[in-house]
Design goal:
RNA polymerase II complex binding
Amino acid sequence: SALAKKLSDLNSSQQSIQTLSLWLIHHRKHHATIVKVWFKELVKAKDSRKLTFMYLANDVIQNSKKKGPEYGKEFATVLRKAFEAMAVPENDEKTRRSLGRILQIWEERGVSESEVEVEVDGMKELHVTLSPRTPAGDPPEPEELIKALSDLENSASSDAAVRERVANLPPEVSELSYLTKLEDRAAGERLAIQVGEAVKLLNEYNKRLSAEMKDREKLMVMMRDFVQAQRDLLAQAELRLEEYSEKLRKVYAVRQEVKSHLQNLPDLTQLPDVTGGLAPLPSAGDLFSLH
């Protein structure tokens, strides 16, 4: 199938994983079939390539949450078997650490509605509780977040002038007991005017406070989405750092071997002069010239 071919061409580079991940997310309506093929090809793959399949699953699960929980739920049905199929040798610490990191990410994020128990190192069982959570929305741009925070600097709750006006309202506008102290109609009319002004002031201020609450709730969602996006990026960066640190270690090893090999090779510039100072051979013209 086309998917099996794409999986066979998959390599551990970030571009390869992200490209196929985007393709799978685009075709998420076929998530059940896709996960089945993914698991089948993982089982068939060489041990050296199986970790790349797990990186792909991680990318799909993390980046599809905004569009829906389908992949998280579907992958949860095969995760245990997938980890069992990894058959990681006891001395392969790098792969064990990478798998443990992926599991830790899933545990922190929550991508489905089931629980998976995976034994990573033969000693520790990692219980990954995949709980239903509200999928994060598209994270705001930093400029949007800064503007929202800046707007709240002039919020109703920080309006000291209005708060002072409310605090200085005369007690008679809020205490019924003062009504018994009214001596005549004129005093009652003056009180009615004061109460009307207090009602207007408090109504307007309460409306501003209600609007501020909505703005703060909106800001909380924006910050949640922004923080979640940064955590996802951090997790991906950590995985990449580990992967490329291993590549760098291999390059260092090759460089060291090259240096060692060069030291054992002869330096042709230091070889003795094999001609021994002999005169040069005669040319063809010299050989056939007549004396």
